[in-house]
Amino acid sequence: MFDTHELGRRPGALQRLSRSVEAPADLGIDGVIGVPEGSPVELDLRLESVMEGVLVTGTARASAEGECVRCLEPLRQEVAADFQEMFSYPSDSSDARGHRKEAADDDAEDDEDMTPLEDGMFDLEPVLRDAVVLALPMQPVCREDCAGLCAECGASLNDDPDHHHDAVDIRWAALQGLADSLGTGEKDNMGGAEAGVDEKQEK
């Protein structure tokens, strides 16, 4: 939680903050890449007081860990995420019974885009989570020229760039199988013919 009391409600007032916080759980893309829970996230924030509330602009920096989608090797990647969020002041409009008056339709729509301050405090975790997840790569690679793994045996092509297999052209594979079967059939026929000749000679 961050406190805005020092900023005050005077429009135009500014406050800059730099803070290190612990990464929350599940800050990333499940099974792909993410910031480990409890690892430091460096925040540089700019708080600006405006008529409606406090406009928070900032940058989050952290180290994400994951697995290369090509060679499956572990990787670590620095990530920087920019974000901006408006936190609104609580409404002072209320009726005689203390109930909040109904806002106009356009005001209600504006309120949907703002998160209310709670006793001058705001929680940055939801904003931070959205910004960092969007900044992470959907298909992380250990390096841009990663060659990946051999599709046939799974060997790393980064370790052995000349690795290859002598593959039979699939267009000839069916004919090769046919030739093998014909060769076997001809041998069987020849064997049968030779046996017939021998029987005649014995007679």
Q: Helical stretch count? A: 3
| Rg estimate, integer Å | 35 Å
Outline the biggest β-sheet.
7 strands, mixed
Note the beta-strand portion: 25-35%
Strand tally is 9
SSE order in H/E notation?
A: EEEEEEEHEEHH
* N/C terminus separation: 108 Å
Low-confidence stretches: 93-110
- In terms of structural class, how would the helical and strand content be classed? alpha+beta
Shape: rod-shaped
Question: How does this model look, in words?
Answer:
The structure is a single chain. The protein has 203 residues and is an alpha+beta fold. 26% of the residues lie in helices and 30% in strands. It is built from 3 helices and 9 strands, in the order βββββββαββαα. It has helices at residues 105-112, 125-135, 170-202; strands at 2-3, 14-22, 27-29, 33-35, 40-49, 53-67, 74-88, 115-116, 121-122. The strands form 2 sheets. Strands 2, 3, 4, 5, 6, 7 and 8 form a 7-stranded mixed beta sheet that branches. A hairpin with a 3-residue loop joins strand 3 and strand 4. The chain is rod-shaped and about 95 Å long. It starts with a strand and ends with a helix. Mean pLDDT is 78; it is low at 93-110.
Main attributes of the structure:
two-stranded antiparallel ribbon; alpha+beta; 9 strands; 203 residues; single chain; 30% strand; seven-stranded mixed sheet
What's the layout of helices and strands?
Elements: E1 2-3, E2 14-22, E3 27-29, E4 33-35, E5 40-49, E6 53-67, E7 74-88, H1 105-112, E8 115-116, E9 121-122, H2 125-135, H3 170-202
Quick description:
The chain is of the alpha+beta class. Helices cover 26% and strands 30% of the residues. The chain is built from three helices and nine strands.
